[in-house]
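Example with several molecule types.
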Amino acid sequence: MVFKIQSTDKKSKARTGTIQTDHGEIKTPIFMPVGTAGTVKSIHQRELESDINAQIILGNTYHLYLRPGLDVLSQAGGIHKFNGWNRPILTDSGGYQVYSLSGTRKIKEEGVTFASHIDGSKHTFTPENVMDIQRTIGADIIMAFDECTPYPCEYKYARKSMEMTHRWLKRCCDRFDSTEPKYGYGQTLFPIVQGSCFKDLRLASAEKIASFNREGNAIGGLSVGEPAEIMYEMTEIVCSVLPWEKPRYLMGVGTPANLLESIALGIDMFDCVMPTRNARNGMIFTTEGIINIKNEKWKSDFSEIDPGLPSFLKNYYSKAYLRHLVASKEILGAQIATLQNLTFYLWLMNEARTKIEEGTFSEWKDLTVKKIMTRL
Amino acid sequence: MVFKIQSTDKKSKARTGTIQTDHGEIKTPIFMPVGTAGTVKSIHQRELESDINAQIILGNTYHLYLRPGLDVLSQAGGIHKFNGWNRPILTDSGGYQVYSLSGTRKIKEEGVTFASHIDGSKHTFTPENVMDIQRTIGADIIMAFDECTPYPCEYKYARKSMEMTHRWLKRCCDRFDSTEPKYGYGQTLFPIVQGSCFKDLRLASAEKIASFNREGNAIGGLSVGEPAEIMYEMTEIVCSVLPWEKPRYLMGVGTPANLLESIALGIDMFDCVMPTRNARNGMIFTTEGIINIKNEKWKSDFSEIDPGLPSFLKNYYSKAYLRHLVASKEILGAQIATLQNLTFYLWLMNEARTKIEEGTFSEWKDLTVKKIMTRL
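Resulting structure tokens for the full complex:
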């Protein structure tokens, strides 16, 4: 993996760049649509490629490990061959799902024991086997196994957890560096900064993580319920320590405004379920603002869903039709809403890159944040 | 509406033709994908046009009347403007849904009173208001309000019901002929033959229906649980009476084999939820046979879903991936399965037309029915 910074903004820490992987190039800043079980829910791979123009998607180790399982993924020749997505893929480490989805889990120094949400069967994730699992899944970028602390979190717990995450990182790196990719293309490992919302812990964690000198770095444990200001503060502190010349990935973030503000702090990569999950519930992001399509006011609004966005949707569908579909719980409602939201998110990243290159990012950001976060 | 017969098969009653509507031409024999609430479940209009090559789709009066409702459809300028489908549309009369979906309904000479499955509100359908409703929905082909008898059905009930359907047809025609289309394009009304599985009733009904001299005729009350042989027998009897020079529509039918056998009896139009509904449950129709994709045997089968069908699906997806999606209840599973099934059904109709034109339909049918109904 090669990261090259192309241009930088003078009034902020924003930058554009490219990440070269064996499955192609990623232009940063970038948003990665979440494809939990090897599918971005309700979106065809063809649409991801040609309509949404996604450059990289995310998969969840926890879900893929349980279903279809490592035997199938291995026989397929890895996740790209399995799901037909030939551009880059990133997998998380499974840690977040284990904590948030699994009813009964035990976190110990060795690793985490948890019960499958599908059949209740018991499994253990350790830093070592999570590396092995991600080798078998075969994403281009894989994540270290960490503990994601909740918000709010006691200082003492946050510190102890962070220290364990650091020890786990050492074990992840040892395992990763002593194993080979399985399918003939390269994989790279990103470590994750933790430390909850405590400045000193975030600083200490960022320094520790940077010292591992991996090809890219991630920030975890944010966007878990804390106020946006605290998230930005922590992100800023961490970005001041993480090496400038390597990509920075802010995990699980966020709203369109969160993305633009975090780009200004020096973040290059994002993922979040918001554009996909909220789409299925009728929350539509547009270039003109946010629409709750279930609202009565859209019932007879036959205008196109987003006049500002080039998309095939405008050739077929109106707000009123989308409202009807979502109100009727029709699958096509989820399809259209998700396609709109992801097209918007990727368009926003493209706009941000252009503005950074043109040297007008900061002014554009302030105007745009206001507009796109307006409730219509 | 203009129907022209293009070619006929020498060894059967099969024929090819064209139906000209104000929304374009339909080549017959044709299968009409079911778009209950103004959407073919899990399929984009773009896919219907360009991938599936659907020439006409069906909508359900009962569902569209309840949601989005006539005010929205009227303000939109009719169903085509509302759902973005600019090719022909056919609506059923709502009768079938009222009988099968509605818990509490009362059938009287005047009409049917029923409770909405959405909110329990009370409504009445009469032959007259069902014509008005279908004028407002605005489909190109609309259906007479009839009673669809269950199977099995007592002779006495079947006869009385059939006679009421005939009286209702008179009322439908009177109302239809004394009203105008609302959106500047033509609409045509098809009456429906009933008579359950009784030869004399079917003959009598077909004669009565033919006497109304409408532009096309339909056969209802079949494919409701009776053996296929009886369905074919009834279809054959009715086709011997219904005028040769007008399109014949066999409602709610059926399996790929049912379609080919009924084409041989002189049927031109079909609709059925089978390719769409069963897709969502993992039943996949292919040129090689029928697949239950949930079956363990497909778990590591990385071959394409249907090697015999030209489709964009083959560029992305395997049987194993589709199995994973359906097993995981992922929306994309429904999307792929439905797209495959409808592409197959429309391909099959296209093949049938070609074989009829080439004069090889009957031989081809016998071989094909065997192949495509094989359980893989």
